[in-house]
TrEMBL record:
Name of the protein this chain belongs to: Transporter, major facilitator family protein
Highest taxon above the source species: Bacteria
Compartment annotation: Cell membrane
Species this chain originates from: Weissella paramesenteroides ATCC 33313
Alphabetized GO MF terms: transmembrane transporter activity
Cellular component per GO, a single term: plasma membrane
Domain Major facilitator superfamily (MFS) profile: 9-390
Transmembrane residue ranges: 12-32, 38-59, 71-91, 103-124, 131-154, 160-183, 204-227, 239-256, 268-287, 330-352, 364-382
Main location: membrane
Length: 393
């Protein structure tokens, strides 16, 4: 019975991340449609990604550090706010209301990821932690595999508002599953004062992890934010093929997350410098490779395989440090990865907008390579600190 219960609860936690990913990433698939609907440039609609990620990064530590009540109740309230925000998007009459609705969704999304990770550490036996963490992250990749292409198809076929109707209905179903399956009595242990929880950021193992995650996602999102325009404008694929290509890219990112779990179970962060070096080469050569449809497409798919490899090793590293030395900061620690992922997304998408506006779509890879180089250097430094402290992740 316990095994069956664990499987059901794991499914719900993965489903939460899938819906969160669907809601967050769908903007990338419908940039062109929103641009036409509200008569703004593609670069301007691209800043929806920046705004969402920035609000996400700012709000998540504030919410998670103030959670003192029953964590199940907190998750339920946040899930209802998330549902409301997506429902507001459906009826947005103008670009301003659209931005407001996205801000509402962003405010609670990070805390929901954090709570999912916290629930995962409670319900999963030690041998299954890396598996469940990698699958919670993979929920976002599944959203890329199925959600973004499906949402893009719905948008081009019926209109972008029907995409958010779908997201809202799925959100309602998820809320009902949360009520039915997750433990109702989970409390954060040994939580201290808000400022006391932030002491964790004084640890070199944490602030280097933060910098790695920020630069890693920034490097990817300089490019990823403009994936659909690259397919449609730079590589000149038609709309039908773009949906297929987005699906393939999503499969690549899913492979990335699953490989991330395997890396976490084996060499972990010690392997990441080599992988970042490969990613740097893939991104720095992108402007040249985009000159040909085949080489450009292959290069893009390679980015998909590489983009999430650091997630599980870094998440387990941060949680391990928190459990060992900062137990009063456990929920905040569980949110660090997602907070600074979105800070990286915000930074990368904003940088991507500047690159596109000033240098064109073809050069987004160079901007991504610069951030990836910083992630590479920071990972080497973190591995040295871990070796000195005899911290093995």
């Amino acid at each position: 019975m316990r095994v069956k219960e664990f499987k059901i609860q794991s499914f719900v936690l993965i489903l939460i991340s899938l819906i969160l990913g669907f809601s967050e990433f769908i903007i990338i698939g419908i940039l062109d449609d929103l641009s036409k609907e509200f008569s703004v440039s593609v670069a301007t609609t691209g800043y929806l990604v920046t705004i969402f990620a920035l609000v996400y990064a700012i709000s998540t530590p504030i919410i998670t550090s103030t959670l003192r009540s029953n964590l199940y109740h907190a998750m339920l309230v946040l899930a209802l706010v998330f549902t409301f925000g997506n429902a507001l998007t459906i009826i947005a009459p103008n670009y301003t209301v659209l931005v407001i609705s996205r801000i509402i969704v962003a405010i609670v999304s990070g805390a929901l990821v954090s709570l999912s990770m916290t629930f995962a550490t409670v319900i999963a036996p030690m041998a299954k932690r890396a598996w469940l963490v990698s699958w919670i992250f993979s929920g976002f990749s599944v959203a890329s595999v199925f959600g973004v292409p499906l949402g893009t198809w719905i948008s081009t076929t019926f209109g972008w508002r029907f995409t958010f109707i779908t997201i809202t209905l799925l959100s309602i179903i998820t809320v009902l599953l949360i009520i039915k399956t997750l433990p109702h009595n989970l409390m954060q242990k040994k939580q201290g004062h808000i400022l006391q929880q932030f002491v964790i950021f004084k640890d070199a193992r944490i602030y280097l992890s933060v910098f790695i995650q920020t630069c890693s996602l920034a490097g990817v999102y300089v490019f990823y934010t403009y994936l659909r325009p690259i397919f449609s404008k730079t590589l000149s694929f038609d709309a039908g093929l773009i949906t297929i290509l987005l699906t393939i890219f999503g499969v690549m990112s899913l492979i990335s997350n699953q490989a991330s779990g395997r890396i976490a179970d084996n060499k972990g962060l010690r392997l990441m410098p080599v992988l970042y070096l490969i990613e740097f080469i893939v991104l720095i050569t992108m402007p040249m490779l985009l000159g040909n449809v085949w080489s450009g497409t292959i290069d893009i798919m390679l980015v998909g395989v590489l983009m999430y490899l650091v997630n599980s090793p870094l998440q387990l590293h941060i949680m391990g440090v928190a459990e060992s030395d900062y137990p009063h900061s456990l929920v905040l620690a569980s949110s660090i990865n997602s907070i600074f992922s979105n800070l990286g997304i915000s930074l990368g998408s904003a940088a991507g907008g500047l690159v596109v506006s000033n240098f064109g779509l073809n050069n987004v890879g160079i901007g991504g390579a610069i951030f990836t180089a910083f992630a590479l250097i920071s990972t080497i430094m973190l591995n040295k600190v871990n070796a000195a402290k005899q911290t093995v992740y």
